[in-house]
Structures are given as C-alpha cells and as structure tokens.
Write a structure and sequence with these properties.
heterodimer; A: 114 residues; mainly beta; six-stranded mixed sheet; five-stranded antiparallel sheet; 11 strands; 0% helix; B: 114 residues; seven-stranded mixed sheet; four-stranded antiparallel sheet; globular
Chain lengths: 114, 114
C-alpha cells in the first residue's frame, strides 16, 4: 500500500530560523512529489513540484529535495517569517497507479513566532 | 486564465438532505479529481473523471456519493441523504493530462451538516 507520512505533525520556531519539514513515502517508484501550503480554512497553494528524475527544486526561500532510494523528501525554509505560518502538505503520485491521484501526508502545522 | 472554480464555497445542509458540489476546471483541462479533507485530517482521494467518464472511483464511499463530469458544464459531486460525518472540505483539482503535470486545486467547498 502506498503511503505518505509527515513528521513532525506540528512545529513552532522563532522568526528567522531555518527549518526542515520531512516527508516519507513507502514506494520508491515515485512519479512526482508536490509540496503544498494550506492556510486555515483555505485551499491549497502549490509550492514546488519535483519530478522523479529531479533531485531538488527551489523557489525563493524554499528548497525541496527528493531522495527516492531512501523514500524521503524535505522542504527547507530559509529565514522563516511569521507569514510562513501554515500547514504544509506533501503529496506523491506513483506510476503503478494509472489515475495518478495524489497521495497526501497528514501535514506539518508550522508556527513562526515573531 | 481563470483557475479552478468551485461553488458554493460554503454549504449547510440538514441531515437527510442532498448536497451538490460543483467544480469548473481550468480552461483546457479535461481531467478532474475530487478530494475530501475531514476535520483535522489530510486530504483523501475520492474520484477521478475525464469528460463523460469515471476513471477511478476507488476512494468514493460505496453509498450515497456519486460524481459526474458531463460533456458540457462543470463536474458535480453529489451526496445524497447527508449525515454529520459528511461534514468536510471537498476540493477539486484539474489537470490538462493525467500524470506528470501538476494538479491545480480549487478553493474548496466546506460542507456542514447540521
């Protein structure tokens, strides 16, 4: 069964700190992995998409890496700001699944304290 | 190019009533996914549709739930005889093709069953 897990479930850091969010998946034959941000009561904002042939993607202060052999992805946030406070979700698609549906982790709830 | 549109954004139904949730994909997208997010949980896949076809409904509850994506008009997720446990946020995502492209998410419909 293909599963995606995120640790920790919640994280609180002071403003300015660099931080890493973790995502693990059970099937190394991943097709792609997507990181999303979700604000309370809101929809999903796509942050980064990493294809299986890629090792990392960067956007501004965000950097996402993908290590298929270990079944892990990390989202690195540099110089965190209070506006980064949100829930971060990772989701993967797998080639054995012809519908390419996204399998989501349960999220990491991030609080950046001023 | 307008994004994925969902309406209504908020829907309140009494137990036993029917709920109809609509999703208009991005222009040029013919693939639609529905996901459900129960309170304090991650998103779970429900159904994947192409125009006039249900491709994968492995995540749909066996009873009371149905989905369609007609040749013309939005995709509809229909829940008959709603119960309190159906209270959740329902998200729709669209894609121009299955697989590699990102899935683009709508803002969601928050269903409350009283």
């Amino acid at each position: 069964k293909q599963e995606v897990t995120q640790i920790p479930a919640a994280l609180s850091v002071p403003e300015g700190e660099n931080l890493v969010l973790n995502c693990s998946f059970t099937d190394s034959a991943i097709y792609n992995l997507q990181w999303f941000r979700q604000d309370p009561g809101k929809g999903l904002t796509s942050l980064l998409l990493i294809q299986s042939s890629q090792r990392e993607q960067t956007s501004g202060r965000l950097n996402a890496s993908l290590d298929k052999s270990s079944g892990r992805s990390t989202l690195y946030i540099a110089a965190s700001q209070p506006g980064d406070s949100a829930t971060y979700l990772c989701a993967a698609t797998f080639p054995m699944d012809s519908s390419y549906k996204l399998i989501f982790g349960s999220g990491t709830r991030l609080l950046v304290r001023p | 190019n307008a994004g994925v549109m969902q309406n209504p954004r908020h829907l309140v139904r009494r137990r036993g009533q029917e709920a109809r949730l609509r999703c208009s994909p991005m222009k040029g997208h013919s693939h639609v996914y529905w996901y459900r997010q129960l309170p304090e949980e991650g998103l779970k896949f429900m159904v994947y549709l192409q125009k006039e076809n249900i491709i994968d409904e492995s995540g749909m509850p066996k009873e009371r739930f149905s989905a369609e994506f007609p040749k013309e008009g939005p995709s509809i997720l229909r829940i008959q005889q709603v119960v309190r446990g159906d209270s959740a946020a329902y998200f729709c995502a669209s894609s121009p093709l299955p697989g590699p492209p990102e899935q683009y998410f709508g803002p969601g419909t928050r269903l409350t069953v009283t």
